[in-house]
Design brief:
The chain has helices at 26-33, 44-60, 78-85, 97-109, 145-157, 172-178, 239-248, 259-262; strands at 68-71, 89-94, 115-118, 129-134, 159-168, 182-188, 195-203, 209-221, 224-235, 253-257, 268-272. It has 273 residues and is of the alpha/beta class. Helix 2 (44-60) packs across helix 3 (78-85). The longest helix has 17 residues, at 44-60.
Length: 273
């Protein structure tokens, strides 16, 4: 399905004006998205299990299986819950209280023992972990160098000696060149009860930032659709920039894996304390 944006009047996430004030903070954006997050997938839990399996394989190849893991930007639990199901001892934190509440409900429904808490990734992290993960392009929400370095310093400080950070971000090195105007709408399910999502992107003049409006769609009756949207800003974070910041806070080595090598859907960096 390809929809004309003019025919999808956004309702229900946030009233917006023009200019910078129309951007939701990550907290507001994910608080509003949490109830609809499953609409981004054909089947969210099946997708989550795939995410967890790929990450577990990458960690196992580096000598870590079933350790103490922190997902410091866990959202509704896509990676945190699936890794807990694979035997990791997982703590998940996120800046969005609504996302954490949704993650708790999803964990309870599946009988998973996962500790979940509301926390800003920039704040000091309690505990010591074998692995910290941050997936699904979360770190580019940190728009300033000082915020990114503060978050990476907190992560570095809670890792065991020789512990690993595994993070995924979009391939902004390529995207800054092509500057796509969005992600086409994908629709899943049977006619009459379908759901889907799509994105509209607006780049800054120098491609340092991209404002993303995310639409979620639900079919309430055959041919009748309800659309909601939220808009937030990402830093178009180059791999070399993130690499530099990781090393500046004390990570000793970094390894970048592109999707064709990792099997994951975004570039992954693995940094060792």
């Amino acid at each position: 399905m390809v929809a004309d944006r003019r025919g999808l009047l956004p309702r229900g996430w946030m009233a917006r004006g023009k200019g910078p004030d129309r951007m939701d903070t990550p907290t507001k954006f994910y608080d509003a998205l949490a109830p609809d997050y499953h609409l981004l997938f054909d089947d969210w839990w099946s997708a989550a299990q795939w995410h967890g399996g790929v990450i577990a394989d990458l960690l196992a190849a580096r000598g870590i299986s079933g350790g103490h893991l922190l997902d410091c930007t866990c959202g509704v639990g896509t990676q945190a819950l699936s890794l807990a199901a694979l035997g990791y001892r997982v703590i998940g934190t996120d800046v969005s209280a609504a996302a954490i509440n949704r993650a708790r409900a999803e964990a309870s429904a599946r009988g998973l023992d996962v500790e979940l808490a509301v926390k800003d990734v920039r704040d000091r992290i309690e505990g010591v972990f074998d692995v910290v993960i941050s997936c699904d392009n979360a770190l580019p929400h940190l728009l300033r160098d000082e915020d990114l370095e503060r978050a990476l310093g907190s992560i570095h400080g809670c890792l065991q000696p020789d512990g690993l950070l595994l993070a995924s971000i979009r391939d902004y090195d390529s995207l800054r060149q092509s500057r796509p105007n969005g992600v086409p709408i994908s629709v899943y399910g049977r006619p009459g009860t379908r759901h889907g999502s799509g994105q509209v992107w607006q780049w800054s003049a120098e491609a340092e930032h991209v404002d993303i409006e995310l639409f979620t769609l639900t079919e309430t009756a055959p041919g009748t659709w309800h659309a909601r949207s939220g808009t937030t800003r990402y830093r178009a974070l180059r791999r070399a920039t993130l690499d530099h910041r990781l090393k500046s806070v004390g990570f000793t080595t970094t390894e970048w894996l592109m999707p064709e090598h990792s099997g994951y859907y975004q570039p992954i960096v693995i940094a060792r304390r």
